[in-house]
Structures are given as C-alpha cells and as structure tokens.
From TrEMBL:
Keywords: Acyltransferase, Transferase. The keyword Acyltransferase applies. The keyword Acyltransferase applies. It comes from Yersinia enterocolitica LC20. InterPro entries: Acyl_CoA_acyltransferase, Bact_Acetyltransf, GNAT_dom. Residues 1-154 form the N-acetyltransferase domain. Pfam families: Acetyltransf_1. SUPFAM superfamilies: Acyl-CoA N-acyltransferases (Nat). Transmembrane segments: none annotated. This is N-acetyltransferase. Gene3D superfamilies: 3.40.630.30. One of its GO terms (molecular function) is acyltransferase activity, transferring groups other than amino-acyl groups.
Length: 155
C-alpha cells in the first residue's frame, strides 16, 4: 500500500470531498461537498503543518484518507492539531488502510515537530486505543456523544 500526500494529487480533491460528504453528510461540517472541497484545497497548500494523506487502489481510485488540521474543536486553545477525516472506502475496509494512514499521519506530525495530536470519535475508540491513543474526555459534538482522544508524540 502506498501512502501519498494529497497536495501531489490536487485533481483528486473533488473525489475525496464527495466521498467524505457521502460518509458523514448528516454532520454539519461534512454536509456540503463544495465546502469540504474548499477546506481540502486550502489545507493542502502546505501552510500551518496541515495536510491530507491518501491511499490509491490499483485502479487509481482513492481507497482511504486521513487529515491533520488546526483546531477542529477550537474551544481549548492548547489542543492545536487534530487528526480527522479518517476514511476507508467501503470496498477496501478490513485491509488495514485506516491503521496505516493514522500511523503515517502521526509520523508526518512527528517530522513537523508536533508534540500532541487530538481526535474525536463516536465509535472507533478501540481502534485508536490499539494505536496508542488515550481517551481524555467525552463530550457532545454536533449533537452526538464522542470521545476526545490524545496521542503524545515522542521523537
């Protein structure tokens, strides 16, 4: 499996935006593919250590994504960098793509000198715990109870 930076494949931004919108359209932040498209395009200009990684299937279609973004939940200033948009296309689930992408995202953060990474999830706590994440709080996000988790990066 080869993991790539989205900034090297800008023509795939609309495809990824559509995939994310279809997966999470019931959540406000992902209800409009056009807005997701804009966020992905801006994020992948290489500013502020934000990025999106992807995997491509043999047919050239996107099989998975992960992003690191600033202040996905912005109410606690110290929680700066967030892992999100962890997505595997249904056709490719169960092949370790999400795990590989999360690990690659962590490694990229390490190279950027990021020391703490956060995420929130309503139902994937077990996966993240296996990857070394720790649950630090439960809260409501967009009307849904989620676990906020933290990963402390070491050099």
């Amino acid at each position: 499996m080869k993991i790539e930076k989205l900034e090297e494949y800008p023509h795939l931004v609309p495809e990824i935006a559509q995939m994310l919108q279809e997966e999470w359209s019931d959540l406000t932040r992902w209800s409009c593919a056009g807005e997701i498209n804009e966020r992905l395009a801006l994020r992948n200009l290489g500013l502020n250590k934000e990025f999106t990684l992807l995997t491509l299937a043999d047919n050239g279609c996107v099989s998975g994504t992960v992003s690191v973004m600033l202040y996905e939940l912005d109410d606690i200033q110290e929680r700066q960098y967030w892992l999100g948009e962890v997505f595997t296309s249904p056709t490719y689930r169960g092949q370790g793509i999400a795990t590989a992408l999360v690990n690659a995202g962590i490694e990229q953060c390490r190279q950027f000198g990021i020391t703490h990474l956060y995420l929130y999830t309503p139902d994937q706590q077990a996966l993240y715990r296996k990857l070394g994440w720790q649950e630090i709080e439960q809260r409501k996000v967009s009307g849904e109870w989620v676990s906020v988790m933290q990963f402390i990066l070491s050099s």
